[in-house]
């Protein structure tokens, strides 16, 4: 405070604080007990404020010892890698990207796409709406889902699904399994299959299961609902094998157990498929019943349908079995037979007629 500031019209206007004594002639305060300033308003200096140095009582400033800095000489920080010290704040001003209290940490190599690098941790501090280690994730999770920035995916709640939890909950019911939340399909427990995991059918011998239909598709001739029945050994000459019954299903015009019979029975005859023979009616004859009926009349016998001749009853003979014969015993080795047209002698041992 200048003298002109302390006087008004030649009179001293100065007031001394903290017990200071006014010298009216000089218009100055003589301070006591260490108080300072033109009006003794500044508090005394505290020697303890200089931790590593000495106190200038006039200015109350510390004069620091070598390698110590700061207002209280309490900063011994040494800045590395070209950093400069701000002694008043005891802080290093680092350069070249170096970091840390003494600039000893190497520069961060983090690349932040939508944000800035925290030089202390080298982590990204993302702009609003971005997340992830590189601030490259702008995913927004719907329906109460939360974003995992590190993985850039959503953790959905309430059954909602999809990348951003926008897909509605699955309505699938899995009887023996669990629901795949990506496609709402069932993931069945081992041993179960089908759209609802309701099928426990196991296909054997290489068969393939259609889980939705719960049916086996058998291979290599195996059959049955689970392909456990062995292949049929039936040989069908003109047809195919019914895999359920192993019987032949013949092509049109063929019959028989092996479809090897093409016989046609005429004139109302019926075919015996097992033997491939015709059973003729109405007197028709022959392999296919095409031969006309015999007209032969056998008086005492029956007609041979093969050659239309008579087969006579015992004691009768002749083309129509109309002649009889009576044989009489005439001694050792001889019989005399009488026919309707004469008699003859038969040698029994030689079967010769004499």
Structure in words:
The chain is mainly β. It has a domain at 301-353. Helix content is 1%, strand content 25%. The chain is built from one helix and 27 strands. It has one helix at residues 3-6; strands spanning 7-8, 11-12, 21-23, 28-30, 53-56, 61-64, 84-86, 91-93, 115-117, 124-126, 146-148, 153-155, 177-179, 186-188, 208-210, 215-217, 239-241, 248-250, 270-272, 277-279, 301-303, 310-312, 316-317, 323-329, 334-339, 342-347, 352-353. The strands form twelve sheets. The chain has a five-stranded antiparallel beta sheet with strand order 23-24-25-26-27, with no helix packed on it. Strands 1-2 form a two-stranded antiparallel ribbon. It is rod-shaped and about 210 Å long. The model is unreliable at 342-346 and 348-354 (pLDDT under 50).
